[in-house]
Amino acid sequence: MSIREITLLSWLIAIAALASPLSKTKLLKFDGGGIFYWYQAGACKYMQEAGFSSEADLSILGTSAGSLSATMLLVQSDFDAAAELAISQCERENLFEKPTGLAFRWGSIIEEWLEEMIDARHCDPATLSRLLITATSMKTLRPWVEKKQTFLSGFKNKRELINANLCSVHIPFFLDRKLYTKYYHSKEEGRGRDYSRFIDGSFWPFMGQSTTDVPRYLVRGCKGEEGVLAPHEIYTVGDWKKDEEFAAKVEGKTSFVSLVTPEGLYEMMKCGYDYQRQEHEAGRVPLCVLPPAPSSHGVLPRRH
Question: How far is CA 36 from CA 8, 25, 56, 69, in A?
Fold first, then answer.
C-alpha cells in the first residue's frame, strides 16, 4: 500500500470515528453498586493504564459507590493501593470475623480511606469542576415533594469532595447509625456556612420512583442548554450487570452491602479490568475517553 493510500485510509477512519455515536459522548457515568465498587475499580485501573486523561474534555458523574470511582479516577488515585488499604482497615477492625461485617462501621472507614487515597494536589477547583455527584435530599422523603436526585458540584477542595462522597454513599443507619449525612455549603443569603441533609444517591432510582436523567446545563460543553442528555451522549463505566460471565458468577451469592474476602475483592477487580479491556479492544469505548486500543494492554491487578 502506497503512502498516499495509507494517508487516505487514515482520513477515512478518522471521519468514521467522528460520525460514530461514540464521538458524541459528553458524560462519563458511574452508577451505584455497593460492594461491586471493586468491579468498577478494576475498570478504572485499566482505563488509567490505557491512557485515560484527567484533563479529557467531558464531565464525570458518580452515584453512591460510583461517586467513589468517579472521584478517584478524576484525581488519579492508585486503585491497587486503595484495595490494599481497604483490606488492612477491615483486618484492623476485625470485620472479616464479625457477623455484622461492615454494618455501622462503614462510614468512618470510608472517610478514613478517602482521606488517604485522595491527593489534595489534584483537588483544585478547575479539575473538580468536571465532577458531578448525586445524593438524595431528605426533603424528597416528604410525600408532596418530587422524588429526584440532587446533583452536587462546584467542589472547591478535598474536604468538600469527601463530604459529597459521604452523602452519596450514605445508607441510613447502616453506614454509621445515623439517618443522614450533612452536606456543608455556603449560605445562599450571604456569608457563613449552612448544611443540607442527604442519603444515598441511588435511593429513588432503586425504589423505582425517579429517573437518572442528567440535565444538560450541568455538563461541560452544554452550559445554558435545556433538556437532558441523550443515551448516546453518556458512557457508563463498570456496569457489572453487562458482564454476563461475572453476573452469573455472583448471582445470589453477593449482596450490595456484603463484605467480601480479600480474594473476592481482587477477583472483582480482575473481572472489571478484563471486561473494560474487552470493551476497549472491541472499539466500544469513545475516543474522548480512551485512545484506540492496541492488541493487548497492561497487567492485571496485583493479587496479594
Answer: 45, 25, 26, 11
Find the helix packing angle between 106-117 and 79-92, rounded to 10°.
140
Main-chain dihedrals φ then ψ at residue 231, nearest 5 degrees: -55, -40
Give the length of the chain: 304
How does pLDDT run across 209-254, given as a tens digit for each residue? Answer: 766 789 999 998 887 889 999 999 999 999 999 999 999 888 876 6
Is 60 exceeded by the pLDDT of residue 76? yes
Dist CA 107 CA 181 (whole Å): 10
pTM as predicted = 0.85
Give Dmax (Cα) for the chain: 70
CB atoms within 10 A of CB 298: 14
Contacts of 300 (CB under 8 A, 6+ apart): 270, 273, 274
Burial group, residue 275, by CB count within 10 angstroms (0-12, 13-18, 19+): buried
